[in-house]
Amino acid sequence: MMAHGRNGAAAPILRSSVMQYNRPGPRTPSDAPNEHPDTRLVRAGRPVAKYTGVVNPPLIRGSTVLQPDTATRRREGKRWLEQSLTYGLNGSETHFALENAIAEIEGGTHCQIVSSGLAACTVPLLGYLSAGDHLLVPDMVYGPTRDFCEGLLKQFGIETTFYTATATAHELAPLFRPETRVLFLESPGSHTFEVQDVAALCALAHQHGAVTMLDNTWGIRHFQPFQHGIDLSIQALTKYVGGHSDLLLGSITVNDEAHWRRVRSTAGMLGQYASPDDCWLALRGLRTMAVRMNHQMQSALHIATFLSERPEIQRVLYPALPGDPGYEMWKRDFTGAPSLFGVEFKSSFTTEQSDRFIDSLSIFGLGASWGGYESLIMPTYGTIHRSHDIPLEGPTVRIHIGLEDPQDLIADLTRALDAMQR
Questions:
Q1: Between the CA of residue 403 and those of 199, 301, 376, 384, 422, what are the distances in Å?
Q2: What is the Cα–Cα distance from 138 to 387, expressed in whole angstroms?
Q3: Residue 4 contacts residue 11 (beta carbons within 8 Å)
Q4: In b/e form, how buried is each residue of 364-390, taking b as 16+ CB within 10 angstroms?
Q5: DSSP label of 116
Q6: Chain centroid to CA 259: how far?
Q7: CA torsion, ordered 251, 364, 331, 34, to nearest 10 deg
Q8: Which parts of this chain are annotated as the region Disordered (predicted)?
């Protein structure tokens, strides 16, 4: 095919790999009602039916996108809400494939990829709140989200009320004001893992005209947010989607056109952009996420049970463990659990002894984050900040179970618990 350039000379139209790739549009669970969620993890965000070519969406980097003529440029410029190739900041085929995949997994219609899990929390809050507004946030929310509310949002004249982690709809109702614009949820909560009655709280928020946002990172693959009344679902794709502790990404998913317009425009105005290399790695991690999470959940349940029976342990904070205060609600609303939980030592133990326990471990790495292939531990005592009473008496740690053999992990924990008392 030939085209005439600006100088009138005939020039070939070069179709790049971007234009050659048969990119699928967004799918929703209703498009494949008989597919198991794990099948969708393999198929989402890539061409699967009657397609000949490479299996994986290609990695595409770039800032400038060339258009064949001014009419095309004007037309594409009007499609800023869509997955249109206009400029690198608006995404490439690599970004679009991941957006489609996450939207499908979360049960939404549109997804905005951002640079980190924290950005996935802060971008929608900035998009929906203005000076004089009020929002409600659970007291056990992710620490950096709390810092953002108490720092930048307060600086902008936005007031935050931190409500009790286990508040029922009846208990939360008096906290709503005429200026309450957002109800933020995180279930289970960071470090202490309280489970919220998402459906009941969302119904209450909608009665007051508030938008509901959920940090659903713990519930990836196991909790369908939009079936419970959530308007915006937030993910730290850094965790299980990446799966290998080598990327930073976040996502904001919606199932409503008006919410999509607000989220997409806010992310654009803030210059939010995710590395296409990280998006490509996330797509790769997505394909094995079900296998990894299944193995890690079984190991976590085994190890959490072991720890709950040790004399040094006051309790294990894990909703998937029978006897946990949130177990019945978790069993009702979730189809499974990730491999992240908390451990509270008996109050007779000191923080120095807890430190000795951590320092005596040889397989568990001491580090933040979770969802990767490796087991991790980090102290949480002294780092939990609440407006209400902290329901803890002894030193606490957070444990993430990786892909190592669970018996090796138990042996490592046993040695460290013995060392803790010496």
A1: 33, 13, 11, 28, 30
A2: 10
A3: yes
A4: beeeeebbbebbbbbbbbeebebeeee
A5: S
A6: 18
A7: 50
A8: 20-39
Q: What is the C-alpha to C-alpha distance for residues 203 and 220, in angstroms, rounded to an integer?
A: 22
C-alpha to C-alpha distance for 210 and 410, rounded to whole angstroms: 46
Average pLDDT over residues 70-94: 90
Domains 58-285 and 288-421 share a fold: no
Closest by CA position to 334, among listed 320, 317, 318, 316: 320
Give this prediction's pTM: 0.91
Domain spans, the chain? 58-285, 288-421
Q: Which two tokens stand for residue 169?
A: 């709809």
Give the rounded percent of residues in the chain with a pLDDT score beyond 90. Answer: 79
| Pairing verdict, β 340-345 and 365-366 | unpaired
Helix (H, G, I), strand (E, B) or coil at 397: strand
Q: Between 3.40.50.1860, 3.90.1150.10, 3.40.109.10, 3.40.50.1970, what CATH number should domain 288-421 receive?
A: 3.90.1150.10
Confidence tier at 82 by pLDDT (50, 70, 90): confident
pLDDT score, position 9: 46
21 in Cβ contact with 98 (< 8 Å): no
User: Under CATH, what is the fold of the domain 58-285?
Assistant: Aspartate Aminotransferase; domain 2 (3.40.640)
Dist CA 365 CA 374 (whole Å) = 8
Q: Name the strand (E) or helix (H) holding 4.
A: strand 2-4
Percent of the chain past pLDDT 70, that is, above it, reads 91
Neighbours of 136 (CB within 10 A): 24
**Tens-digit pLDDT profile for residues 312-341:** 999 999 999 999 999 999 999 999 999 999
Strands 232-236 and 250-254: antiparallel
- Alpha-carbon distance values, 133 to 25, 160, 184 (Å): 36, 9, 14
CA atoms within 13 A on the CB side of 307: 31
Amino acid at the residue 349: F
Q: State the average pLDDT over residues 383-397.
A: 84
Q: Which residues contact 395 (CB under 8 A, 6 or more apart)?
A: 344, 345, 349, 350, 351, 353, 354, 379, 381
